[in-house]
UniProtKB/TrEMBL annotation:
One MF annotation (Gene Ontology) recorded for this entry: DNA-binding transcription factor activity
Organism expressing this protein natively: Pseudomonas hamedanensis
InterPro entries, A to Z: Homeodomain-like_sf, HTH_AraC, Tscrpt_reg_HTH_AraC_N
Annotated PANTHER family: ARAC-FAMILY TRANSCRIPTIONAL REGULATOR, TRANSCRIPTIONAL REGULATORY PROTEIN
Sequence ranges assigned to domain HTH araC/xylS-type in this UniProt record: 191-289
Protein name, UniProt field: AraC family transcriptional regulator
Pfam families noted in UniProt: AraC_N, HTH_18
Keyword entries, A-Z: Transcription, Transcription regulation
Length: 299
């Protein structure tokens, strides 16, 4: 059986309803959608997204990343994106295998298998696309296939996951993975500042504090933060705030004023302006629309 056809079959059997399905393999989840979805906010953590069928788009700032069976997506750090399935149907649903990236394992592999350093003229973006190779697809099929053989998971899953990480690390064009594997890289320095922002998004913060956390000069911090996230630190924090406010209004029925206050806005009018700028309509109207016609939040 063709590897891609086999992967479609395995995911289709183990993810029979739309949504994100955790699996008995640690760090592996399966995603299915039988219809295209509206753009929805989600935070991409360090992850490999390997599509078996269909197509998805992730918007990071103003940059669109479209991935499908021919191209996989790598998210290297925690990034707020607008994700939407753009190709799916009942007969050919969107199917994806997602693997959490273990930075400790990547670092170990990078030390054991050093590669010639690529010259990088600019800081890498936090999201990258790359061609799905036959070798990577074959390993993904073997990993997903373990779901049909639960007794083998404990012994074999770590070996196959290690192979997948090795493939990612050694493939051409994957400088983002090598940056992720280096604990002292600019990517990981920015990741420290992002982790702090995710935990303190509703608090006032000074750029100097983030610069200190990253351990960089102010100018270098701004250059690398913008390159990696496609946003300024302030815009990044505001997007985290607005995503959480949207969640509060939709899932907890919190009103717009209270949601804005909880995520750190002091001015309701500023919250409303920023919200409409990101989501296209005022907070209350958008929340009502989502509660009555929500299509789901996919990884």
């Amino acid at each position: 059986m063709n590897s891609l056809v086999e992967l479609v079959d395995i995911i289709g059997r183990h993810a029979q309803s739309d949504g994100i399905h955790s699996t008995t393999i640690a760090g592996v989840s399966l995603i299915r959608s039988a219809t295209p979805t509206m753009p929805m906010p989600v935070v991409y953590e360090p992850t490999l997204c390997l599509v078996a069928q269909g197509r998805k788009q992730a918007m990071l700032g103003t940059t669109a990343y479209v991935y499908d069976p021919a191209k996989y997506l790598i998210a290297s750090i925690d990034l707020p994106v607008m994700g939407s399935v753009i190709e799916a149907s009942e007969t050919a649903p969107y199917l994806c295998l997602a693997l959490d990236l273990d930075t400790t394992s990547l670092s170990e592999l990078a030390l054991r298998h050093p590669l010639r350093e690529e010259r990088v003229s600019a800081p890498p973006a936090g999201i990258a696309l790359n061609d799905t190779t036959p070798e990577l697809l074959d390993a993904a099929v073997r990993l997903a296939g373990l779901l049909d053989r639960p007794r083998d998971i404990e012994a074999l899953a770590p070996l196959v996951i290690r192979e997948i990480l090795y493939r990612l690390l050694t493939e051409n064009g994957n400088g983002i993975i090598r940056q992720l594997a280096q604990t002292d890289s600019r990517l990981n320095q920015i990741a420290k500042a992002i982790a702090w922002l995710r935990s303190h998004y509703n608090e006032a913060c000074r750029i100097e504090d983030l610069v200190d956390i990253a351990g960089m000069s102010r100018s270098s911090f701004h250059t690398h933060f913008k390159a990696i996230t496609s946003m300024s630190p302030l815009k990044f924090r505001n997007q985290l705030r607005l995503q959480e406010a949207r969640r509060l209004m939709v899932t907890e029925a919190v009103d717009a004023a209270e949601a804005g206050y909880r995520v750190g806005y002091e001015s309701p009018s500023q919250f409303s302006r920023d919200y409409a700028g990101l989501f296209g309509m005022p907070p209350a109207k958008d929340a009502w629309r989502l509660r009555t016609d929500i299509c789901g939040i996919w990884h």
